[in-house]
Amino acid sequence: MGHSKVSYWYGSLLDIQTARSLAPYNNATSLQVASGVLAGVVHCIENPREGVIEPEDLNYKRSIEVAKPYLGKLVGEYTDWTPIKNFATLFPRPVDLSDPWQFKNFRVY
Question: Could you identify which of 11, 14, 40, 43 might form a hypothetical disulfide with 72, taking C-beta atoms 3.0 to 4.6 angstroms apart as the criterion?
C-alpha cells in the first residue's frame, strides 16, 4: 500500500459451496483461517526444534502448499483502495486528508 499503483490485494476467493464441499458445516472465512492454522501446525511438526519464530521466518512456499487445497482460487490484484476512500460512509472520525497512509487513517473509532 502507498506505492505508485496505490494498493495490491492478494487473497483467496472461496465461495460457500466450495468451502462446504471441502469441510461440511464451515464457511469460507472459517476455512481460510483454519488453513493458515493448519500450515502453522504442519510447520511445528516438521520443525520441532525451531522454537518460537516470527511469521516472516516461516517457509511461505510450504505454508501455501499446505493451505492451498482449502483456499479456493488465489488472486492478486491492484486496487485503488486507500484508508480514507469512502471513510465518511463507514464511521465519522478524524482523518488526515493530506496523507491517506497515515496510521490514524486506518483506525475505526
Answer: 14
